[in-house]
């Protein structure tokens, strides 16, 4: 799928912004990294840095909360079938189950791409790379999200079709949305809906405006990635070729930025990246 934004490509200078380097390490999103820097939690070569715009390379010693920044892995993306009743967060103050309670051991540190409401189920993307997360969430990328929706109420197909032009509810603009009636049952109806910018509870609010009550909401796709036959609570890694060819997510970070690549390790602690000694054979291989 084509996009307006540039693909994630190698940075020829080997430099990148400090906040981006932290996000690339999989610790957090770029926005969260910027907040950590502003709070004085990040040092570069032993000096506390307060600007996320500082350019850094693999030669800089970066720490977060006194611990060395871990070496980044290659960008990875996973499909996860989120069940209803599970919260998309690391910890829930109300003690509800989170997606991390369902993920198997042996996975890298993962961040959700966007959010699904508590009672929404279906495809949720997870990634180990904060910059990939940001890229997939950007409205300007225009990734199409598709849903199946079960509703209670009288469906007006003309009003559904009109959603393609967008609408405004209580001063908030929504759409355009591609909405179609799939089938009717005795008491409910199933709709298919596609949108490119998912605002908070957008589908529920739009359908409520049309006099319909949503009683089941399933995300079936995100861009070229499909929920398919993935069972509830299951997770599956997206092949590297699909990431590269269909989503513009390129080669390992080692090739793109000059930061060494770490071996995948579940819940690995923050640690300093070990750089291999430069030999004549290795030097020739890089040329």
UniProtKB/TrEMBL annotation:
Transmembrane stretches, start-end: none
Sequence ranges assigned to domain RNA-binding S4 in this UniProt record: 16-75
Region (Disordered): 252-287
Top-level taxon: Bacteria
Biased amino acid composition, Basic residues: 262-277
GO molecular function: RNA binding; rRNA pseudouridine synthase activity
KW Transit peptide (keyword) present: no
InterPro entries: PsdUridine_s_RsuA/RluB/E/F_cat, PsdUridine_synth_cat_dom_sf, PsdUridine_synth_RsuA/RluA, PsdUridine_synth_RsuA/RluB/E/F, PsdUridine_synth_RsuA/RluB_CS, RsuA_PseudoU_synthase, S4_RNA-bd, S4_RNA-bd_sf
Enzymatic reactions: a uridine in RNA = a pseudouridine in RNA
Listed EC numbers: 5.4.99.-
Pfam families cross-referenced by the UniProt entry: PseudoU_synth_2, S4
Keyword vocabulary terms for this entry: Isomerase, RNA-binding
One Gene Ontology term from the biological process aspect of the record: enzyme-directed rRNA pseudouridine synthesis
UniProt feature, compositional bias: Basic and acidic residues: 278-287
Family (UniProt): Belongs to the pseudouridine synthase RsuA family.
Protein name listed in UniProt: Pseudouridine synthase
Species of origin: Limibacillus halophilus
Lineage start: Bacteria, Pseudomonadati, Pseudomonadota, Alphaproteobacteria, Rhodospirillales
């Amino acid at each position: 799928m084509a996009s307006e934004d540039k693909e994630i490509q190698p940075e020829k200078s080997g430099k990148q912004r400090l906040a981006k380097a932290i996000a690339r390490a999989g610790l957090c999103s770029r926005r969260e990294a910027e907040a950590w820097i502003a709070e004085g939690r990040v040092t570069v070569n032993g000096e506390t840095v307060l600007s996320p715009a500082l350019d850094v390379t693999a030669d800089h010693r970066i720490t977060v909360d006194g611990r060395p920044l871990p070496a980044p892995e290659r960008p990875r993306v996973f499909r996860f079938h989120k069940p209803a009743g599970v919260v998309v967060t690391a910890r829930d103050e109300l003690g509800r189950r989170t997606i991390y309670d369902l993920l198997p051991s042996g996975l890298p540190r993962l961040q959700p791409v966007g959010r699904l409401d508590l009672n929404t189920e279906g495809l949720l993307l997870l990634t180990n790379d904060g910059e990939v997360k940001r890229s997939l969430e950007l409205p300007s990328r225009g990734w199409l999200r598709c849903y199946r929706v079960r509703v209670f109420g009288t469906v007006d197909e003309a009003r559904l079709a009109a959603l393609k032009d967008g609408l405004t509810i209580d001063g908030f603009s929504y759409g355009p949305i591609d909405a179609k009636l799939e089938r009717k049952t005795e008491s409910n109806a199933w709709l298919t809906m596609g949108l490119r910018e998912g605002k908070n509870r957008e589908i529920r609010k739009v359908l409520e405006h049309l006099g319909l009550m949503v009683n089941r909401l399933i995300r079936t796709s995100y861009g070229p990635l499909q929920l398919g036959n993935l069972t509830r609570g299951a997770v599956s890694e997206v092949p590297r070729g699909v990431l590269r060819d269909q989503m513009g997510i390129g080669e390992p970070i080692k090739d793109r930025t000059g930061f060494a690549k770490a071996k995948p390790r579940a819940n690995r602690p923050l640690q300093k990246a070990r750089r291999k000694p430069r030999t004549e054979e290795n030097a020739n291989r890089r040329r």
